[in-house]
Design goal:
This is C2H2-type domain-containing protein. By secondary structure, this protein is α+β, with helices and mostly antiparallel strands. Helix content is about 30%, strand content about 10%. It has 17 helices and 11 strands. The chain binds a DNA duplex through helix 17.
Length: about 525
DNA sequence: CCTGCCGGGAT
DNA sequence: ATCCCGGCAGG
């Protein structure tokens, strides 16, 4: 169908068969590195001869004419190998090439070539997935605005290289040991997406009986392959409708701030701000007894509560806001979501603790420091604590935060398995604290932490400490947080007005700290 | 000023 | 325990 067009494309990077340089007749494979026209003055009539510089398997460079290469192959169609194995140099061509390879060539031909860095990367799984990732990414970017046709080969390959580096380091980073889900934030993005619009509807059965009953859309992406990171711009819109759509939901004020957090691109010199570093995922958990359903949108959880627990069938428009009482907001650190999921029990904290050997002072840099958590006052529950970091030593890596909107409804104690590899602040003295209990708002939170060496890692630990500060208030800091900081968000009084005082939460009625609209 | 909410009193 | 409110403090 498009064969004609394919021919026109550059074949750089294509795998071709060529006559063996030793002349023994056995065809060898190589990768086209360059092509030049032999007779540049060729008129439209005359066939032009091209000379291809091919990187052979043994690393040597050879030049072949088109005919030579064609002759070297005996299992391609009439038009010659170049045409069938063409890999268009940029963007979508990559996937095309891959498809073809997979179809007709020997298994080893499947592994992708990286044309410019010259050396072939061996076919280890990582490399493979890197290729896939690149491919997908290319597709994405080409479908957006990148004028792919104009990109030079070097640019393209720089992208590949950087992507490879990023992915490689991701896949080797200590945290990435369990499900591949957490590697990709893109996926977390799609949770959101699905939550608001997709198949991810709050079903009536809370069969899982447990906490995490989302259905990840992993069926469409190869589970063993990290899905491509969505570019920040494509990711952003997903969040907004999910949360913003619901009128007076408690997170309304918060998510914007998250969005503001510009992922100042730390992916080396990535040209595009590729991936929001936002590793915080907000979920909403039903607090109804024995339910514990977790959904990703307020709308979803509200509907769940309304229909399942409150037994109302009407739509959200006849809601009186009562659902708000029965769910809470949970922040998940998607970096470690899987850890948190796989082991909610504190027991395994030691098992969980990341393997990175102490000797290496700095962790793989590319492992995204999930900074981005804003110091925005409205975002943190205990700003005092965020200033003082007495707790930072026990910064958990498997970290999920209870945002506790309606804490007084909370039921079970929440235990946070913690395994920390580093901590930031110099202000504390490393002690051997292992477990303590803190009471913050109403629900008791049991926190078990492992103290590890106080190696300082800037961005990382800082962020962690901040996050943990949000989570808990250390017993000793009581003087500092004598008074809870004034809430920014709407409170019952504002929302319902004096005339509807009976709709306020009890705390508000009693002039206590509002428990419905915490912020 | 308004508003959130702590401390403490009344029941 | 529940309810209420004076008064402080942040905005």
């Amino acid at each position: 169908m498009h064969t004609r067009r394919l021919v026109k494309r550059s074949i750089l990077g294509s795998r071709v068969y060529a006559p063996s340089p030793t002349g023994d007749g056995a065809p060898v494979t190589g990768v086209v590195q360059a092509v030049k026209q032999e007779n540049r003055d060729a008129s439209a009539a005359g066939p032009r001869r091209s000379v291809y510089t091919v990187l052979m398997q043994d690393g040597s460079l050879k030049e072949f004419t088109e005919e030579e290469i064609a002759a070297g192959s005996n299992h391609t169609a009439t038009k010659g190998p170049l045409k069938s194995s063409l890999k268009q140099s940029s963007s979508n061509g990559v996937s095309d090439g891959h498809k073809l390879d997979g179809g007709s060539r020997s298994p080893e031909a499947v592994d992708e070539q990286r044309p410019v860095d010259g050396k072939r990367v061996s076919r280890d799984p990582d490399t493979r997935s890197v290729s896939l990732l690149e491919q997908k990414r290319k597709v994405v970017s080409s479908s957006i605005d990148v004028p792919h046709a104009r990109r030079s080969e070097e640019e393209v390959d720089m992208d590949k290289v950087t992507a490879a580096m990023v992915l490689t380091s991701l896949s080797t980073s200590p945290l990435v040991r369990s499900p591949p889900v957490k590697v990709s934030e893109g996926l977390s993005g799609s949770w959101k997406d699905n939550g608001s619009a997709g198949p991810f509807t709050p079903s009536s059965n809370s069969s899982s009986g447990g906490y995490w009953s989302w259905s990840a859309p992993s069926d469409q992406s190869n589970p063993s392959t990290p899905s491509p990171p969505l570019s920040a711009d494509s990711f952003k819109p997903f969040r907004v409708p999910g949360v913003g759509g619901v009128g007076s939901n408690p997170t309304g004020a918060e998510d914007p701030s998250l969005d503001e957090q510009d992922g100042s691109s730390l992916l080396f010199d990535e040209p595009i701000p590729r991936k929001r570093k936002n590793s915080m995922k907000v979920m909403f958990k039903c607090l109804w007894k024995n339910c514990g359903k977790v959904l990703s949108t307020t709308a979803g959880i509200q509907r769940h509560i309304r229909t399942i627990h409150l037994g109302r069938n009407c739509d959200s428009d006849c809601s009186d806001g009562e659902e708000d009482f029965y769910y809470t907001e949970i922040k998940l650190n998607t970096d470690s979501v899987a850890d948190g999921l796989s082991s909610l029990s504190p027991v395994s904290s030691s098992v969980l603790s990341p393997p990175p050997p102490p000797p290496s002072p700095l962790p793989p840099l590319s492992h995204q420091p999930d900074s981005h958590r804003s110091p925005h006052p409205s975002d943190s529950k205990e700003p005092h604590a965020s200033g003082t970091t007495p707790l930072s030593r026990s910064a958990p890596s498997a970290l999920y935060l209870i945002h506790a909107d309606h804490a007084y409804q909370a039921t079970a104690p929440v235990s946070i398995p913690s395994s920390s590899s580093n901590s930031s602040s110099t202000s504390f003295t490393p002690s051997n604290s292992s477990s303590f209990s803190i009471s913050w708002q109403s629900p008791p939170v049991t926190f078990t932490g492992n103290t590890v060496s106080p190696t300082q890692t800037q961005g990382f630990g800082e962020q962690r400490s901040q996050t943990i500060a949000v989570l808990s208030s250390p017993p000793r800091a009581t003087t500092a947080l004598s008074r809870k900081v004034r809430g920014e968000g709407k409170k019952c009084r504002k929302v319902y007005g004096m005339e509807n005082r009976d709709m306020w939460c009890t705390a508000c009625r009693w002039k206590k700290a509002c428990q419905r609209f915490t912020d």
